[in-house]
């Protein structure tokens, strides 16, 4: 039983942050979508006018904050992303602890989060997805805490975090509905859950508070020198964003369908070129052991829930399933593997739960799994961290399949 998780959570945060910060300024050029978001952050710093209006402002504001603190440098562009990645790791640890109340599976979940590759890559690039997931995973942990202990302040905090997640990317919006549905299901199954929170009042607070938090993220736009936002324009501006979000885009070499992402069919090379005096590469790919093993764990959670109705197995399975199901209905003309980022991180929870369950038969299966995941992380590290590569054909060492090239 883990009675005092805070010291361990702080240690995990420090370890994750040290990992993400190491050689953060390499490469010194824009990587992948940094070409969009760093200029947008510069515009926010100067408050010159609208830029990159297809996305809300919060993620770009956080990139700008890092640049204000550390300068318009690669380190300044990316430093806030490292904090978001560390928060995500701790949030997965906290969620697993709140579900199990045990140290071992919680630490396994945190380790698998760090070793899953996708968090490491996204925590070292100035993109919006890492900020969205930090707020989203924190909201999930806060909801789990509310489920266990009740209390209006926890529920309100979860609603604020959900609103801020949507303020980074609209992809987080369906999770507000997921939160409402989860509240209703768990409360009906056992009225003692969410103590002190009546259903309709809790749902009203969730909707109103998350919406207010979302709209608050547009505050900098009211101070633009050109085309400043106004209260009258705030709602119509959302429709302008929607038009940008749903526009038909030309075909892309790295596009892929949502159902291919769990199978790891088409990862993305964020970078592969000579830079800073040598050949370097950054491949956004999930750890094959965790990505494929996680699918087995999700299936086992669903089977376990059908057999015994375990709420925690249902929650763990739905966390991944729901995050992927969004893409089956979302109106996007193109899909890319980085859209799978939240789902890839959420796999750590069902994996930790099932590995802990399977320990009754195979005593050290969880440690063996983490060790194997670590071995793969060391193997792939050169093309996760933009380390110097021997030559332009070095990618062959890591591209196991032709679709990975």
Automatic annotation (TrEMBL):
Subcellular location: Cell membrane
Any one Pfam family match given in the protein's UniProt record, by short name: PMT_2
Residue spans crossing the bilayer: 82-100, 106-123, 153-186, 198-224, 289-306, 313-330, 336-355, 367-387
Enzyme class, broadest EC rank: transferase
PANTHER family for this protein: DOLICHYL-PHOSPHATE-MANNOSE--PROTEIN MANNOSYLTRANSFERASE, PROTEIN O-MANNOSYL-TRANSFERASE 2
Provenance organism: Sphingomonas dokdonensis
Family of the protein in this entry: Belongs to the glycosyltransferase 39 family.
Record's protein name: Polyprenol-phosphate-mannose--protein mannosyltransferase
Domain Glycosyltransferase RgtA/B/C/D-like span(s) in chain numbering: 55-207
Keywords recorded for this protein, A-Z: Cell membrane, Glycosyltransferase, Membrane, Transferase, Transmembrane, Transmembrane helix
Keyword Transmembrane annotated: yes
EC number: 2.4.1.-
Function: Protein O-mannosyltransferase that catalyzes the transfer of a single mannose residue from a polyprenol phospho-mannosyl lipidic donor to the hydroxyl group of selected serine and threonine residues in acceptor proteins.
Domain of life: Bacteria
Gene: pmt
GO cellular component, one term: plasma membrane
Pathway: Protein modification; protein glycosylation
InterPro entries in UniProt: PMT-like, PMT_4TMC, RgtA/B/C-like
Record GO terms (molecular function): dolichyl-phosphate-mannose-protein mannosyltransferase activity
Boundaries of every Protein O-mannosyl-transferase C-terminal four TM domain copy: 232-303
């Amino acid at each position: 039983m883990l009675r005092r998780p805070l010291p361990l959570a702080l240690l995990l945060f420090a370890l994750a942050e040290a990992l993400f910060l190491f050689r953060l300024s390499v490469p010194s050029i824009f990587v992948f979508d940094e070409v969009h978001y760093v200029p947008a952050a510069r515009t926010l710093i100067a408050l010159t006018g609208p830029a990159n209006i297809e996305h809300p402002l919060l993620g770009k504001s956080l990139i700008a904050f890092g640049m204000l603190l550390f300068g318009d440098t690669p380190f300044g562009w990316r430093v806030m992303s490292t904090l978001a990645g560390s928060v995500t790791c701790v949030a997965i640890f906290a969620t697993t602890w709140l579900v199990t109340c045990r140290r071992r599976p919680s630490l396994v979940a945190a380790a698998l989060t760090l070793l899953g590759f996708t968090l490491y890559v996204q925590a070292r690039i100035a993109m919006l997805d890492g900020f969205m997931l930090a707020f989203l995973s924190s909201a999930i942990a806060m909801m789990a805490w509310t489920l266990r202990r009740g209390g209006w302040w926890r529920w309100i905090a979860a609603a604020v975090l959900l609103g801020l997640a949507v303020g980074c990317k609209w992809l987080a919006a369906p999770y507000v509905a997921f939160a409402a549905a989860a509240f209703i299901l768990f409360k009906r199954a056992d009225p003692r859950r969410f103590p002190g929170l009546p259903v309709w009042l809790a749902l009203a607070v969730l909707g109103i508070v998350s919406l207010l938090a979302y709209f608050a993220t547009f505050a900098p736009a009211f101070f633009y020198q050109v085309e400043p936002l106004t209260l009258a324009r705030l709602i119509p501006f959302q429709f302008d964003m929607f038009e940008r979000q749903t526009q038909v885009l030309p075909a892309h070499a790295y596009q892929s369908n949502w159902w291919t992402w769990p199978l790891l069919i088409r990862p993305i090379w964020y970078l592969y070129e000579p830079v800073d005096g040598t050949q370097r590469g950054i491949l956004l790919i999930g750890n094959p052991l965790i990505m494929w093993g996680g699918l087995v764990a999700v299936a086992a959670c669903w089977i376990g829930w059908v057999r015994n109705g375990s709420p925690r197995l249902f929650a763990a399975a739905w966390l991944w399933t729901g995050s992927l199901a969004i893409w089956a209905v979302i109106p996007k003309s193109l899909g890319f593997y980085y859209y799978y980022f939240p789902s890839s991180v959420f796999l750590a929870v069902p994996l930790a739960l099932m590995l802990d369950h399977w320990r009754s038969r195979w005593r050290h299966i969880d440690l063996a799994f983490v060790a194997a995941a670590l071995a793969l992380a060391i193997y792939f590290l050169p093309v996760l961290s933009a380390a110097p590569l021997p030559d332009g054909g070095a990618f062959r060492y890591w591209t196991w399949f032709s679709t990975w090239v």
